[in-house]
Amino acid sequence: xxxxxxxxxxxxxxxxxxxxxxxLRGQSFKALMQEFRGEWFSAWYSRYWIKSPTILNARGDIPxxxxxxxxxxxxxGSMEAINEPELKMHYFTISFDTHVNTTxxxxxxxxxxxxxxxxxxxxxxxxxxxxxxxQEFIDKVLTGTAGNIGDTTYSCPKIMIDAVFAILTNPYSGxxxxxxxx
Length: 182
Description:
It is a single chain. The protein is an alpha+beta fold and about 180 residues long. It is about 20% helix and about 40% strand. It is built from 4 helices and 12 strands; from the N terminus they run E-E-E-E-E-E-E-E-E-E-H-H-E-E-H-H. It has helices at about 120-125, 130-145, 160-170, 175-180, and strands at about 1-5, 20-25, 30-35, 40-50, 55-60, 65-70, 75-80, 90-95, 100-105, 110-120, 145-150, 155. Helix 1 runs antiparallel to helix 2 (about 130-145). The longest helix has 12 residues, at about 130-145. It is globular.
């Protein structure tokens, strides 16, 4: 696999203003991952063009707390310490692990898209700690225990789908883009 830390000419038309791009290329795929950094988060919009069944593995000593949305097609995968459920299109999960050791499985020749938000634990309190499942998950994160929020994936509410769509299609640039993304 080749990792290119800048935008390539064939990916320019997919670039979102204000994001930092990274291009991945392999024998049976190409991908464009774009990151936007906010104060307490980084958002990643990733597009994968898969020519034949492909498995991607990533490893690193980086703890992560992530809200992951399957934006196009079903995403399957696993993490070393977490039972990662299949993510159907417009479903999400929130996961925490002390380090990255993940596998993404692309079973068919197709385009896949994900929208992931890596957040700090204090952001979870903004969601409201009056929910039992959320508080149990926050307790896991605070004690350094890997896991998902709940035992299932969740359907994205319309407001979440609308928010991601607005981010991906917004007309802003410069300061306005940063304000909009925050």
